[in-house]
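A favour, since you know our C-alpha cells better than I do. Just paste the record in under my message, thanks.
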Amino acid sequence: MLSFLSIKTIPTLSWSSPKPLNFFPRIATLGYLLLGLLLFGLGEAILIAAGAGVSPWTVLAQGVTNHTDWSIGFSTFIISGSILFLWIPLRQIPGIGTILNVIIIATVIEFALHYLPVTEDSFSQFLYILVGVLTTGIGGGIYLTANLGAGPRDGLMTGLQCLTGAPVAWVRNGIELSAVLIGWSLGGVVGVGTLLFASKFWNVSVFTAYVPSPFWSKAPPANLVSVSPSFQCTKEADVKNPEKPVSPVVVLTEPKALHNPQ
C-alpha cells in the first residue's frame, strides 16, 4: 500500500516530452505542465494561509516580503528569477517549463491568497497543511513528468551537484536549509508545514502512486534517484567515449548526446 514511497525516478508517461529542450510540445504535454504548475502554486498558497510553516523557499520569500514593500507572490517571482542567473556559471539550460515555473507559481500564490481564508484554529491549520503538502506533491509530480525543463531550484541543485560531485540529497538539503535559515532570520514562518514539505513525502511519488499503468510508456529504471530528468552531467571525455561510465563533474549534456556524440 505504501510502495509508492519507494519510487526513486520520474517516470516517462504518455504525455511526457521526449526531451526537455522542446519548444514545440504537444498540447497534452503543455496542458499537464500548466496543470501541475497551477496545483503547485495553489498548494504553496494553502500552506501560507495555514500560518504554520511553509516550504523552504517560501520561508525565504516571506522573509524578503517582511523587509520590502513586495507581496509574497512578487517576492517568489524575484527569487525564482534571481536563481536563474546562477544557472549561467553552472551551465544549466532553461526550458519552457523553467520559464513558466517562474511566472505561474508566483502568480497563483499572489491571487489565490486573496480567496483563501486564514485560520488560527489548530485543527484547521493541520488540515490546511495536509491539503497544501499533498497538492504541491501532486502538482510537482505532474509538472516534472511533463519533462519540459527543470524548475529554477531544481536546476540550481543539479548544477551544484555536477560541480561538486556531492550526493544529490546533500546538495538539495544544503540549499533548502540555507533558504530556511536566511528566510527565518528575516522573519519567515517555519513550522510543521516546513517539516512536512521538506520530508519529501510531497515529492513526485505522491503523484505517480495514482497514475494508472496504461499511462506509462516505459518502466523507469529502478536504480536511479532523480529530481529533474532534464540533464546529466559528464566529463568531456565521457561524451567522446559513450561506453565509459558517467562521472558527475562539470559538463552538462542532454542524455541522448551521450549516445550520439558529434
